[in-house]
């Protein structure tokens, strides 16, 4: 946040500025026209006398949508809009969802056996079923690096003791969120003891402690709306839900999701914890290693 926009970086990369007066600048999103953490890109485009802008989609933020185009055209810049608009909206899905729906873009992800189980029935002292191979493990960590926050439930935290960090890919760690209604999770879990930031969703009132913050919510009501409001307030534009079947199903049943990724392995478990149920048919399939990954997009 607060870094130079793509237009600024593109213009700065041109060594011979005389060429800018003969150039066309292509952007996926309407150039900004207001002063925020950075100066307006439109002002720079006009100052550098770039004669033509080709744009995919308008800024979804109501207070500024259309302003950039108007500012450029009034300065004599030719502006072409709507080029590859649908593709640009998908490319900027996190930003678009955050601005339009006032909540983060939500991706639900899980791995399952070919017969539809995400784990066997086990105690917290037993190891979980490992579905991932080296390729899909890197894919998961790459995904984490692309999201602002990651969420798991109480059972996943207790039974799997995950780190939820980016270790097999480069990038920053997402903010870790864990649901712990009664603050019963042990303090020696990796979520609490490795020094990385964690936000605990609980019904208890608790002061922050070191790397751990607490969000108090009313568990007698659905907690997802409250959580999403808090994430929006914190300017978290994307949420990856890696929790167990109950948590994932609650997001599906609440219709609070934008995308689902399912890693399906070729072997069967025969019985165990059933995978979440999705009634929609995936609109894209692709292979990664020996695993079939289905990718579902909301429209």
TrEMBL record:
Its pathway? Cofactor biosynthesis; riboflavin biosynthesis; 5-amino-6-(D-ribitylamino)uracil from GTP: step 2/4; Cofactor biosynthesis; riboflavin biosynthesis; 5-amino-6-(D-ribitylamino)uracil from GTP: step 3/4
Q: Which InterPro entries match?
A: APOBEC/CMP_deaminase_Zn-bd, CMP_dCMP_dom, Cytidine_deaminase-like, DHFR-like_dom_sf, Eubact_RibD, RibDG_C, Riboflavin_Biosynth_HTPR
- Coiled-coil stretches, from where to where? none
A single GO molecular-function term is:
5-amino-6-(5-phosphoribosylamino)uracil reductase activity
Q: Which domain of life is it from?
A: Bacteria
What UniProt keywords apply to this chain's record, in alphabetical order? Metal-binding, Multifunctional enzyme, NADP, Oxidoreductase, Riboflavin biosynthesis, Zinc
Question: Has the keyword Cytoplasm been applied to this entry?
Answer: no
| EC number(s) stated in the UniProt entry for this protein | 1.1.1.193, 3.5.4.26
- Asked whether the UniProt record includes Isomerase among its keywords, one would answer no
Name the GO terms of the biological process aspect. riboflavin biosynthetic process
Query: What exactly does this protein do?
Result: Converts 2,5-diamino-6-(ribosylamino)-4(3h)-pyrimidinone 5'-phosphate into 5-amino-6-(ribosylamino)-2,4(1h,3h)-pyrimidinedione 5'-phosphate.
The protein's name in its UniProt record? Riboflavin biosynthesis protein RibD
Species name: Coprobacter fastidiosus
- Which gene codes for it? ribD
